[in-house]
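In response to a reviewer's request, we include the raw inputs and outputs for one of the modeled complexes. The two entities were modeled together in a single run.
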Amino acid sequence: MAQTQTWTDTGIAELILLLREEAATGMESIVCLEMATVTTAVVGSTFADPADTAVHHTDSGLLLAAIDTVGTATVNTTNDTITFDHVFTASATKNVSGIHVCNNDDDVTFIECGFNAVLAMENSDTLTIDGQSTIDQA
Amino acid sequence: MTNVRTNNSFKVIVNGEQRGGFCEDCGTQVKKGFYMDGERKRVHMICPACGGMGKLIVRLYSIQAPPSPQDTSFKSLWKFIKDTWFCSFLSTYHRQRVEYATNHRETTMLGKYRTGKPSPQTIFEAIKEIIKLRIDRR
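The model returned the following structure tokens for the whole complex.
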């Protein structure tokens, strides 16, 4: 299974609400997925809701947190890319199978990513995430 | 050539890096630090004593699906088939590499299995690296 990453349907809907200046919030939070097997990112994610604690870490340093840095970058056209960097520090032995990038009030997942393989995190291990999403006009 | 569709899309790239929580050089616990990479504000875990980093366990690799063919010519379809095969072999290599590196965190192994670099660039290289990895895992 490849590492997979995609915008989710709920994330696109939230983006459209932002464009229409309706009640919606921007990219702000990130959380690790806690599954023992590799997961595949899908647009219609069945666990896209960040409140679904069955699949998200809720402790051990891998829980929902404000993203360390969110910025803008240029790939093809000026400012066509949003960038996000974050570091998780595990405080116990845990599996991490991917991440979710969520909105400010943590009720919508914008981006789902399933890693190449499940990472076995041990106490004090760090996981640095370096992500970007581009509206590609190519 | 007749375009049957455009390739406009939301492209997502997520790279990750798992490291130990203590400096590889002096053993001090690493701390979160921000730095500027051009105009982009980045974050990483760095040793407050010597500026070193934790021991690299594994670096993830973001694989992008091949672009869809633009027409039904043999050349376009064949290119798409070749790109799909390459994507498939590349995915297999990086999945097995990440599994190997994360499950053998204390084992001495070739740096390319932890960093993912250099990554195979052709189908032949990807098959060769998969076979080499299987031999090295024994």
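As requested, we also summarize the result in words. The first strand of chain A starts at residue 4 and ends at 7. The mean pLDDT of chain A is 86.
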